[in-house]
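User: I'm preparing a small set of examples for a lab meeting where we compare how different chains pack in three dimensions. I only have the primary sequence for this one, and I'd like the structure in C-alpha cell form so I can line it up with the others. Please keep the answer compact; I'll paste it straight into my notes.
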Amino acid sequence: MRIAELTLHARADRLERIEAELRRRLRPSCAEMPDDQFQELVQRMAALQLKYELRGADSNH
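Assistant: Understood. Below is the C-alpha cell output for the 61-residue chain.
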C-alpha cells in the first residue's frame, strides 16, 4: 500500500511518531524555549515532514 493511501488513523499515528522523535531530538537544543512555542515548532516540523513523505511516496510510484 502506498503511503498516500493510508487511512486518516494511520496518518495521525505517523504524525504522532514523527512528533515524538522530533521532541526527543530537539528538546536538548531548545531547552530555553517555552513549552508552548516548542510544541508549536514540533507540530509544524512534523506536518512538513509528513507532507514530504507523502509527496515522495507518490512520486516513487
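A couple of notes for your slides: The longest helix spans residues 35-59. The mean pLDDT is 88.

User: Perfect, thanks.
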